[in-house]
């Protein structure tokens, strides 16, 4: 009986709060279907590491963290799977859409300025990358920079990605008029040769890596996955990367990120501020894309529906779908999907480049 | 005791709070904002041009 009391007495209020947070993450994953593949392992991992004297923390979770997250291996391997999932077809038929992906990274740099008022440079840069709206990029950048807020940054990045359907529509509506939201953009199907699809990931890797060498691993693994998909001779590998590899890494990534979710690390005022700054990043990203589209409309004969600019935040494919749905809500005959998905995949590329730029500045 | 020492070694160590409030930092970081956005647009611009070129060069092979 003494052992029972002794062990229970080790529970502190911080442990209990973190276990409740773990349960909340599991609830959001299952009950609300918010990024369940990541939030569920993360939630369960949070419970495991907050049991006093947990042998899960000192054993497997610590080992997994050092084997796969501390050296950025898991996020990079996940990028192979993500690259294999992405169809750059809509983007290749209209490459100009990539400009919106670039514009929508504004939130990252704005948040960098905001966060620098409260945190040292390294942590501010890591927090800013939440605006990449891309979990693996956020984890990789925060880890490379050695931020101690990896746990909070990961939670913020994945939570807001799941909350994109709630965050983006009000911002888009606020910045656009009904007339602008009604702009139709007929989609002209253009043929894209297989050679173009094969050359595209190679060119992106060479161009981006030559200018920002710190982005080589991030962009290279993403484009490697895409090359496996598009080359046409590695269907089996492409299938494995999209399903088995991505799923396996997601499980390991989710549960080992919990290494940073101990009460001592997470229950701080800093965490609340990081969550707030993450929200700012997503809002300003969205605004950046929309306002850039409005700016371009000043000079274009053929007007762009500014809502597609909002899809420039990475959060793929939710953001593209939201813009499409908003377009249909305004006008049931206005199909923006191909444009918004094109912008959305360009956001994926631009966010990785932004991650590399942040690393270039601060690592 | 061995278990306790392991926990102490492996658990992320809580460091002293480093938060502060320094509004002037916002201004000093504007430099990174300007350069960062410029570099993104330059890289994306090069990628757009390259894509247009390869689209033009290989557009006859209509595989999809």
- Biggest sheet features of chain B: none
Low-confidence stretches of chain B: 1-16
As a percent range, the share of helical residues of chain A equals over 70%
Give the overall pLDDT of chain A as a whole number.
Answer: 90
Report the portion of residues of chain B in β strands: under 5%
- In terms of quaternary structure, what is this? heterodimer
Protein structure class of chain B: mainly alpha
The biggest sheet of chain A, with number of strands, parallel, antiparallel or mixed sense and barrel status, is: none
Write down the Rg of chain B.
26 Å
* Total discrete domains of chain A: 1
Radius of gyration of chain A: 21 Å
> How many β-strands of chain A, per DSSP?
0
Broad shape of chain A: globular
* Straight-line N-to-C gap of chain A: 52 Å
Describe the structure.
The complex is a heterodimer of chains A (about 375) and B (about 60). Chain A is mainly alpha-helical and about 375 residues long. Chain A has helices at about 1-10, 15-30, 35-50, 55-70, 75-85, 90-95, 100-105, 105-115, 120-130, 135-145, 150-160, 165-175, 180, 195-210, 215-230, 235-255, 265, 270-295, 320-330, 335-360. Chain A has 20 helices and no strands. The mean pLDDT of chain A is about 90. Chain B has two helices and no strands. Classes of the chains: A mainly alpha (about 375), B mainly alpha (about 60). Chains A and B meet through helix 4, helix 7, helix 8, helix 14 and helix 18 of A and helix 1 and helix 2 of B.
Please give a quick description of this structure.
The complex is a heterodimer of chains A (363) and B (64). Helix content of chain A is 73%, strand content 0%. Chain A is mostly helical and 363 residues long.
Give the secondary structure arrangement, pairings included.
The complex is a heterodimer of chains A (363) and B (64).
Chain A: H1 2-9, H2 13-30, H3 36-49, H4 55-69, H5 73-85, H6 89-93, H7 98-103, H8 106-115, H9 121-128, H10 135-145, H11 150-162, H12 164-175, H13 178-181, H14 194-211, H15 216-230, H16 235-257, H17 263-266, H18 269-297, H19 318-330, H20 337-362
Chain B: H1 2-10, H2 24-58
